[in-house]
């Protein structure tokens, strides 16, 4: 049995889901993979729990999320002045970075990731901001320090994007990537197509169902899709592209009439992220596209996502599906930890 110590930064929806999964899957992970994964620290924005022998996951899973839940745990509790300074004092095999993401600054995730790598930890990244702003820097620093970085949960949660490219398509020249990478926008567009309702009505429905945020700008404006596309492109091709390099158009201006016209022509409108490697560099765009219904991307409806890789040796490879919720993102992080140490 291999013992794996984990520091978790961030105890929101995804971090809490990860604790639940590790608690419920402990025996399966031990039996199938011979791994004893123990969270030895949970670091939130105001408080942290630190237990060198492993936090009681059953106890923590019964607590609320965020700082309130960390306080409810009720023992081994520390008040935080600076999460990076605290992380510098701790030791573990792997950091799981699940802090709230900021795609403009990359913080606090970047500081957490950089500190963990400097201490020789492997890192599993769930928050997108640090990868959007500092992808190449993180990869180069990890290589220098002999650390490994995994990011399945930051690139479409349950949908296997990075793994498909790096493992299943190893040795191929991937020259184009297309994807439906945001479940919220796909849900809204699907409702518009299937129920003949307006964008405003579909968005309101998504908010009432808890699918869309109260402020859905990052999703409907295409920024979330652009962030995931950027991470994929920079990771697969080793580029240093930024959000400003993505030609961006969201779905806010799609009308009921636009959808009706597409349906009459046996077509479907989808918000598509596309990265193409050209002779002069990489071209990135996120834009609503009217697709023929024979296109595999149209198979992704509601909260499903999809990715298509175009290669020189294996042809076109696609994956469709994958849950779009905190549990799915947490499961992607667990997958990354298992694949690091199995």
Automatic annotation (TrEMBL):
Could you identify this protein by its name?
A: Homoserine dehydrogenase
Q: Its GO biological process terms? A: methionine biosynthetic process; threonine biosynthetic process
Q: Family per UniProt?
A: Belongs to the homoserine dehydrogenase family.
Q: Which residues form the signal peptide?
A: none
Q: What is its EC number?
A: 1.1.1.3
Keywords from the named record: Amino-acid biosynthesis, Methionine biosynthesis, NADP, Oxidoreductase, Sodium, Threonine biosynthesis
Give residues annotated as binding L-homoserine: 213
User: Binding of NADPH: at which residues?
Assistant: 128
Question: Which GO terms fall under molecular function for this chain's record?
Answer: homoserine dehydrogenase activity; NADP binding
Q: Which SUPFAM superfamilies match?
A: Glyceraldehyde-3-phosphate dehydrogenase-like, C-terminal domain, NAD(P)-binding Rossmann-fold domains
Swiss-Prot/TrEMBL catalytic activity: L-homoserine + NADP(+) = L-aspartate 4-semialdehyde + NADPH + H(+)
| Active-site residues annotated for this sequence | 228
Aspartate/homoserine dehydrogenase NAD-binding domain segment(s): 10-149
**Protein's pathway:** Amino-acid biosynthesis; L-methionine biosynthesis via de novo pathway; L-homoserine from L-aspartate: step 3/3; Amino-acid biosynthesis; L-threonine biosynthesis; L-threonine from L-aspartate: step 3/5
The enzyme's main class, written as a single word, is oxidoreductase
* Binding locations of NADP(+): 10-15
Q: Which InterPro entries match?
A: Asp/hSer_DH_NAD-bd, HDH_cat, HDH_CS, HDH_short, NAD(P)-bd_dom_sf
**Membrane spanning stretches:** none
Annotated ranges, domain Homoserine dehydrogenase catalytic: 160-338
Query: A Pfam family for this UniProt protein?
Result: Homoserine_dh
